Amino acid sequence: CNAMAAAVLMRSLSRATTGRLAPMLFRRPNLSPRMKLRQISSASRPPDEAEAEALEFLTGICGYDERTSHGVIRAVRDSGVSGAQMVSMLKGMAGRVEVGQDAGLEALVASVRQQLGREEGRATVRIRCIPPHVWARHAEEGWDTSGPAHDQILAQSFTVEAMEGMSLADVAKYGSGENADLLAEHLECACSGVMACSTCHVVVDPAWFSRVGDPEEAELDMLDLAFEPQDTSRLGCQIRLSPDLDGMVVRIPMGANNMMDHIPFPD
């Protein structure tokens, strides 16, 4: 993988040293003689055996496809980590997979996927985003899809550049294109894209809704809990960008309802 994936890996590890991952990576617990022998045996495993375990973890437990998983393993290996340390690092970065509490792996995966996409020659997709303050100013006037009023609204939008194949939520969390950081200021994306919240809720401009498509029943259930849902509301994590959506217009709501704030996760 390129230097970008390696840089993301280093940033993830840097953040981890101040969080829950630090004890897993750096603590030296008191071990019994038997456990020490097991640790020595584990550390001396051949690299190919350790990478096979890492691949099984990434594909079987985390659910990533094999090509992405191989890219992640290559990025970690290129950073100088291999063998049992690689397996331990990836498991630590995955955090608590069962409740979606990531500790850096998602950012590394996103960087790897973007690099793979560039190698494949995937297209750049541009999305025009109408910010909340513009929404508030024009909400009472209606949202005509033509005419001078609509042109005035679009003039106050900002354009986000992303790669074909990413979701709109992916762009907000991990995008590196133009204005991806600005989109991140407006979309919280609290649940890692598993439709357990509605914080990536956007409203697709009616002129584009037929290309985006209708939400499925599970998404509709979550949209019912979103902030002021509209007829063309979608969850950003379910909008997969394609060349057909180049130039799409979305409106960012004036608020977000985050049900994740009320779930009592154990410490």
Description:
With 267 residues, this protein is of the alpha+beta class. It has helices at residues 3-16, 21-26, 33-43, 47-61, 66-78, 83-94, 105-120, 132-138, 148-155, 168-174, 180-186, 206-212, 217-223, and strands at residues 124-130, 158-163, 201-204, 233-235, 248-251. It contains 13 helices and 5 strands. The radius of gyration is 21 Å and the shape is elongated. It has a 5-stranded mixed sheet with strand order 2-1-5-3-4, with helices on both faces. 34% of the residues are buried. The protein starts with a helix and ends in a 16-residue tail after the last strand. Helices cover 49% and strands 9% of the residues.
Quick overview:
The protein has 267 residues and is of the alpha+beta class. It is built from 13 helices and five strands.
Topology:
Elements: H1 3-16, H2 21-26, H3 33-43, H4 47-61, H5 66-78, H6 83-94, H7 105-120, E1 124-130, H8 132-138, H9 148-155, E2 158-163, H10 168-174, H11 180-186, E3 201-204, H12 206-212, H13 217-223, E4 233-235, E5 248-251
Parallel strand pairs: 1-5
Antiparallel strand pairs: 1-2, 3-4, 3-5
Helix pairs in contact: 1-7, 4-5, 4-6, 5-7, 10-11
